[in-house]
Design brief:
Elements lengths: L6 H5 L8 H14 L4 H9 L12 E6 L6 E6 L13 E5 L3 E6 L4 E14 L2 E3 L2 E3 L6 E5 L7 E4 L4 E7 L27 E4 L18 H17 L4 E4 L7 H15 L5 E5 L12 E7 L19 E8 L9 H16 L10 E4 L11
Helix pairs in contact: 4-5
């Protein structure tokens, strides 16, 4: 009786398939050809990040295009450092818990960390929100991961009180290392630090200040001028690709509305499941904003019972993109619009801010 042939003899050796040992040898050969030893790669991968940069100035990124052995170095431009000129920062009071500044007109102050800000006299703006003595205490979150908002005096002299706070946000680093070393403390162990240059940061991070370009500032001025005229008829949709500044611009629009409308509130329709403003990724929602937005998205989650950011309608996509099921995404948006239309009509109509998705080509543009 003839013996059965092996699969390799019958069909030949499979093409393009490597055994585990062959794949390991090929990987080792590619690493050696690229000048990276496995021991060095393992050492770098297992070394914990200490929050400091190995060098200042432009950093280096290695991108691999084509074959695995092609390594191209590209210079990555870091954010512009904090550097602004003032005639003098007149510190009126400085104790273990607070600091009081006296600013001249158009004079600015950059503060990193968490703090409560109160205008004792005069007027100032931060994140597009106009602060007055009647504005009361406002909580500001300025981590080092993003551009730092500045306080700009709009009248002279303006007396600004900064007070240290103790919040639970710093406990987030226990859940994820992403939240580690993002806050700032000064020599007095206050939760904030007044900065005039990046070199004053104890961790030597590449900090930058929030700078609104002239074109965006003109749009904000136009929107603010139309708020009282049209109020509930105001509709604003922000479009743009990823990392183009949509979220920051939307916060400034909401703050401009909150500072100038008698009702001091607006509707925020968030259609970006990748980076929503008031909730976890993978959701679309409608939120009633009743307070200024003076921090990043993770500092102000919306809820049904919140007095500042009240969640009206929400749907979960269970995905940060709608490319796999656009029909479900459209159905969710249509259902949200049913509840939204009722709040856009009548004497209680509110301004509407729409945050569109960063996917602006192909299916995302339809």
């Amino acid at each position: 009786m003839a013996q059965k042939r092996k699969a390799k003899d019958a069909f030949g050796a499979p093409e393009g398939v490597l055994s585990a040992f062959a794949a390991a040898r090929l990987k080792r050969a590619n690493q050696e050809a690229a000048g990276v030893s496995p021991a060095l790669a393992e050492e770098v991968a297992t070394t914990p990040y200490d929050g400091h940069h190995s060098s200042s100035g432009a950093s280096t990124r290695v991108s691999r295009a084509g074959s695995p052995n092609d390594a191209v170095e590209e210079n990555v431009r870091l954010p512009p450092p904090i550097s602004y000129r003032t005639n003098h920062l007149n510190v009126v009071d400085d104790d273990a818990e607070s600091m009081t500044l006296l600013l001249g007109i158009n004079e600015i102050a950059c503060i990193a960390g968490e703090y409560d800000v109160t205008i004792l006299d005069g007027a100032a703006t931060i994140y597009g929100f106009l602060l007055r003595p009647e504005s009361g205490v406002q909580r500001v979150y300025a981590p080092s991961t993003h551009a730092l908002p500045v306080i700009t005096a709009r009248r002279g002299p303006t007396k600004v009180c900064l007070r240290s706070v103790r919040s639970s946000l710093r406990k987030l680093e226990r859940l994820s290392p992403v939240f580690r070393n993002i806050w700032t403390a000064d020599e007095k162990e206050r939760s904030f630090k007044l900065l005039q240059t990046s070199s004053e940061d104890s961790s030597q991070r590449p900090l930058s200040i929030l700078d609104t370009d002239d074109a965006s500032q003109r749009i904000l001025t136009q929107i603010a001028g139309r708020v009282n005229e049209r109020d509930g008829e105001l509709r604003v949709m922000t479009l743009g690709p990823k990392s183009s500044g949509k979220s920051t611009f939307n916060r400034q629009i909401c703050n401009a509305i909150a500072a100038r409308t008698p009702k001091k509130r607006c509707l925020y329709l968030d259609l970006d499941p990748g980076q929503p403003e008031f909730g976890p990724p993978g959701q679309v929602s409608l939120v009633e904003v009743r307070a200024p937005i003076l921090g990043l998205a993770f500092t102000h989650p919306a809820s049904k019972k919140s007095k500042s950011y009240r969640l009206l309608v929400t749907h979960t996509l269970a995905s940060t993109s709608f490319k796999d099921d656009p029909e479900h995404y459209i159905a969710c948006v249509r259902d949200i619009m049913v509840g939204c239309r009722a709040r856009l009509q009548g004497k209680d109509a509110q301004p509407l801010i729409v945050n569109a998705s960063g996917w602006v080509t192909g299916l995302g543009a339809t």
